[in-house]
Design brief:
Layout lengths: L6 H10 L5 H11 L7 H8 L4 H19 L2 E11 L25 H14 L3 E6 L8 H13 L10 E5 L5 H9 L5 E6 L3 H7 L8 H5 L1 H7 L5 E5 L6 H19 L5 E3 L10 H4 L7 H14 L4 E4 L5 H7 L6 E3 L30 H10 L3 E3 L3 H4 L4 H7 L4 H20 L3 H17 L3 H15 L8
Parallel strand pairs: 1-2, 1-8, 1-9, 2-3, 4-5, 5-6, 6-7, 7-8
Helix pairs in contact: 2-3, 2-4, 3-11, 3-13, 4-13, 5-6, 11-13, 15-19, 18-19, 18-20
Bound molecules: S-adenosylmethionine and iron/sulfur cluster.
């Protein structure tokens, strides 16, 4: 499999759509409302739109598309960093090998179990497990043992991890097969930048210097049978418009070669990090205004692909962009291995980057419930085999709503009963009561009432 990103082609598409005519922009917005996605050229026109009224129309269309396909659910997860040793020297990352001030840690299995217990006791059910790239300190054997440990760690009140997504360095098909056998959910990998020259500058040493090996990794993961793969670009390294087209070309290539596009697209933006020059002074910073626009354009270009937003962003910005297409968020995160158990300022010297949103999971859930979003910890599709192409076939308006809305309510109820503070519990119960009231189908309404009542009286892990 060869590198399929053509810098010249992407730049040419962007150059050809500078200052688009209003009518063309409106036609494309109209087409995006048909939920069939957009071509790279159409996407480029939206990206090149600078007229404020039109940008607002793009945001408004994204809001409608998000609501139609995903309803008002937001799936929650926690990142779990298990080790920060790294052989690479990515100029933006606190884990880079030249950062001699970083406190290096590779958690033992006992420490990993402790971290998982802390997360379960907060109510988490879904993890994203990560580490640096290091042949001995972060070997695949070690990583797989960590996955097994996390799945095996249970706490009172139904505390357990039901889905582990992973974000680790690219590997061979044979190694991806081992990850699949360890029962991972999604395999996520960010290309960082799709612009070759910038990529080369940002990754001066180590295995990550190989652009092609990285950009073809999610093809290998799919070849190994991992149906759900996630891609992403680190915004701030190069022109954000270019990166959105890079993501789209990547998604289209996966669809063409593997039959399914990515399950998720992540939109991380550069945050300050210890001794990381490109994070302290991002080469191409993306303003909040442009960030909202890019999230909305991705939503319109690939309507059925989930979009992930992390705690890199502030609470206020997160609250706003949820509406433009985000379907999954992290909450209560730490980016230093061991961070969920320790809380000393010293431990932050082991962190990958600084966080924009430092609210606890309970605070995030209370806030989003008050805004009318349904916090979801659901893992039903993955456990029932509704993944990859099956998921995409299902992901038509109405169907996602039917399963996901109900399962979101059930997993949210489980959270409220087991873990919520009184204020969050009150806001959550009010939301659930309203959602039940709004359920039009009589059969479904009584089914939800029944299942919610069973959770109240102690049953756990109910889904349809
Ligand atoms: N080491 C693996 C890798 O690079 O793919 C695993 C994931 S790494 C721990 C997670 C991601 O963090 C990177 O892909 C990068 O996009 C992101 N990251 C690194 N430094 C960052 C920073 N300063 N601000 C925001 N995100 C950052
Ligand atoms: Fe290592 Fe990943 Fe950080 Fe690069 S981004 S230094 S590969 S942990």
């Amino acid at each position: 499999m060869r590198d399929f990103i053509d810098d010249n082609a992407i730049q040419e598409i962007l150059d050809q759509s500078v200052n688009p005519e209003k009518s063309r922009v409106r036609d494309i917005i109209g087409k995006s409302r048909e939920l069939k996605g957009l071509t790279p050229r159409e996407t480029s026109v939206l990206l090149q739109t600078e007229d404020e009224d039109l940008v607002n129309e793009i945001l408004s269309a994204a809001r409608d598309v998000k609501r139609l396909i995903y309803g008002n659910r937001l799936v929650l997860f926690a990142p779990l960093y298990i080790a920060n040793y790294c052989s690479n020297n990515c100029l933006y990352c606190g884990f880079r090998r030249d950062n001699k001030e970083l406190k290096r840690v590779a958690l033992t299995m006992d420490q990993i179990a402790n971290e998982v217990r802390a997360l379960e006791q907060e109510g988490h059910k879904r993890l994203l497990m990560l580490c640096g790239e290091h042949p001995t300190r972060s070997s695949l054997d070690y990583f797989i043992e960590a996955i097994d440990t996390a799945y095996a760690t249970k706490t009172a009140n139904g505390g357990e991890i039901r889905r582990i997504n992973v974000e680790i360095a690219p590997m061979t098909v044979a190694d991806y097969r081992r990850l699949k056998a360890a029962k991972i959910g999604t395999s996520v990998l960010f290309q960082e930048t799709y612009h070759h020259e910038t990529y080369e500058k940002m990754h001066p040493k180590g295995p990550k210097a190989d652009f092609s090996w990285r950009v073809t990794a999610m093809h290998r993961a799919q070849e190994a049978g991992i149906d759900d793969v996630g891609i992403g670009a680190l915004f701030g390294l190069y022109d954000y418009k270019y990166e959105v087209l890079g993501l789209l070309f990547h998604a289209l290539q996966l669809e063409k070669d593997c039959g399914t596009g990515p399950h998720t697209i992540s939109v991380p933006r550069l945050e300050p990090a210890l001794n990381a020059p490109a994070a302290i002074a991002p080469p191409r910073p993306v303003s909040d205004h442009d960030f909202k626009k890019l999230v909305a354009v991705i939503r319109l270009a690939v309507p059925y692909t989930g979009m992930i937003l992390s705690t890199r962003e502030t609470a206020a910005l997160r609250s706003e962009v949820f509406n433009y297409g985000i379907s999954q968020i992290s909450a209560g995160s730490r980016t230093n291995p061991g961070g969920y158990r320790e809380d000393s300022s010293e431990s932050f010297r082991a962190a990958q980057f600084n966080l924009g949103d430092t609210r606890t999971l309970d605070e995030v859930i209370g806030d989003i419930a008050r805004m009318g979003h349904i916090p979801s910890f659901c893992t039903a599709c993955y456990r029932l085999g509704r993944t990859g192409k099956d998921f995409m076939d299902l992901a038509k308006p109405g169907l996602i709503q039917k399963f996901c809305r109900t399962n979101a309510i059930l997993s949210f109820k489980e959270y409220l009963v087991g873990y919520a503070s009184p204020g969050t519990r009150k806001a959550g119960e009010e939301l659930i009561a309203k959602l039940i009231l709004d359920t039009e189908q009589v059969k479904m309404k009584s089914k939800i009432e029944d299942l919610v009542g069973r959770i109240e009286t102690g049953e756990r892990d109910l889904y349809i």
